[in-house]
Design goal:
The radius of gyration is 23 Å and the shape is elongated. By secondary structure, the chain is of the alpha/beta class. The protein is built from 15 helices and 17 strands.
Length: 395
């Protein structure tokens, strides 16, 4: 059992909390503050128990100097201040005298947010490659390290593994909740247990399928990844997305689990991806050479509904099509509604799927929206989460 934030006496201590403020932005505005809101419980706990709270997070990928302006955490500090109804002091540096002085002058219950940890990637990817000196530097700013960034808990970075290697450490409330939910899906799911997988790449989900197919009753497959399976099953898929190097693995899974892996029976096709695209409903043996499949069809929705209605546990990762475009939204939208109206324990895994559930107004009907798609998949694949493993065990 890993240590939790509640296992520490925080009063008067400098508490470094690694959060996940990797939020979407457009035209200088945060378009979805879900991840910021998800961090509030842990931050409030640290403040209410007398901690001096130092927040760290990454935002986006920093490849060149001009990315700094686009991915500054200043907007996040403003949003945090509003949500907490408390001033969050923003330091526009990741290290140096300004950071050290600000930390030195902190009083109990104060909060500071340092600049985007990935700014350090401009100097030899020191954050992303877990530079030992950088991890040690950040650790020296605090007394206790709390990891509450589930979205990066499968990464070996200086701001998580690096700091935890040098300080007493524990988990925040968000990470603790995420791990409990995933353990429920892995170890003791109520049956029937149905997994819904979509998204573009089958390569991203093969390890997940291999690990969960023995635990799940059914795996329903849609999205771009379905076409490699359909091709492996002998169908012509036109110009739809295909990963040729994964055909044999898909074929093997279909041969081993023919009753468990459920593929689309019809598809919405078009020759382009746009809001004015002309579409066709095709059975999977009717897809024409110049067409690509961009959503599941009405027949597939009905088939998937039959499996979902009777389920007791549902895990969904990946949309059923290009739902961002009106002609290709119906499959994903319909599944949102079907899943929302079941009595099952419903877990939504990660970014695009949460965006879809939120877009169509069903987020409040789900039991858990996971803040980390990649981290969820890594854990459900049975692989190690490096930034979780490093956290101190309870004695």
């Amino acid at each position: 059992m890993k240590k939790q934030i509640k296992d520490f006496d925080l009063k008067g201590k400098k508490v470094i909390i690694r959060c996940d403020f990797n939020v979407p932005m457009e035209d200088g505005k945060i378009t979805d503050n879900t991840r910021i809101k998800s961090s509030l419980k842990t931050i409030r706990y640290a403040v209410n128990h007398g901690g001096k709270v130092i927040l760290l997070s990454h935002l986006g990928r920093i490849k060149e100097d001009k990315d700094k302006e686009k991915y500054s955490l200043k907007l996040v500090s403003d949003e945090l201040s509003k949500l907490l109804k408390k001033k969050v002091k923003f330091i526009n540096k990741t290290k140096g005298k300004e950071v050290e002085n600000a930390v030195k002058q902190m009083k109990e219950k104060e909060i500071i947010l340092l600049e985007n940890t990935r700014f350090e990637d401009l100097d030899g990817k020191k954050e992303s490659k877990n530079d030992k000196e950088l991890g040690k530097y950040w650790a020296n700013l605090g007394d206790i390290f709390i990891n509450d960034a589930f979205g990066t808990i499968h990464r070996n970075h200086a701001s998580n593994v690096g700091i935890a290697s040098n300080l007493p450490s524990g988990l925040g409330m968000l990470v603790n909740k995420e791990i409990k939910v995933l353990n429920k899906l892995l170890k003791n799911p109520k049956k029937p247990y149905v997994i819904v997988l979509g998204g573009a790449k089958v390569s991203d989900k093969l390890d997940l399928i291999k690990n969960l197919v023995k635990k799940a009753d059914y795996i329903l497959i849609g999205g771009g990844m379905a076409f490699t399976f359909l091709k492996a099953a002998g169908f012509s898929i036109g110009s739809s997305l295909l990963e040729k190097d994964k055909l044999s693995e898909c074929q093997k899974l279909l041969d081993e689990y023919p009753e468990k892996i459920i593929l689309p029976i019809d598809i919405i096709t078009s020759d382009k991806i746009s809001n004015d695209a002309k579409t066709h409903l095709r059975f999977i043996n009717e897809i024409e050479e110049d067409e690509m499949g961009l959503d599941i069809g009405v027949g597939t929705i009905k088939v998937f509904k039959q499996y979902l209605e009777d389920s007791k546990t549902i895990f969904w990762n990946g949309p059923m099509g290009c739902f961002e475009y009106k002609p290709f939204e119906e499959g994903t939208k319909s599944l949102c509604e079907i899943i929302a109206n079941t009595d099952a324990y419903k877990v939504i895994g990660g970014g695009d799927t949460i965006s879809a559930v939120t877009k169509f107004g069903f987020e409040d009907k789900m039991d858990h929206l996971s803040t980390g798609g990649g981290a969820s998949l890594t854990y459900l694949e049975g692989k190690k989460l490096e930034a979780l493993d490093i956290i101190d065990e309870k004695e």
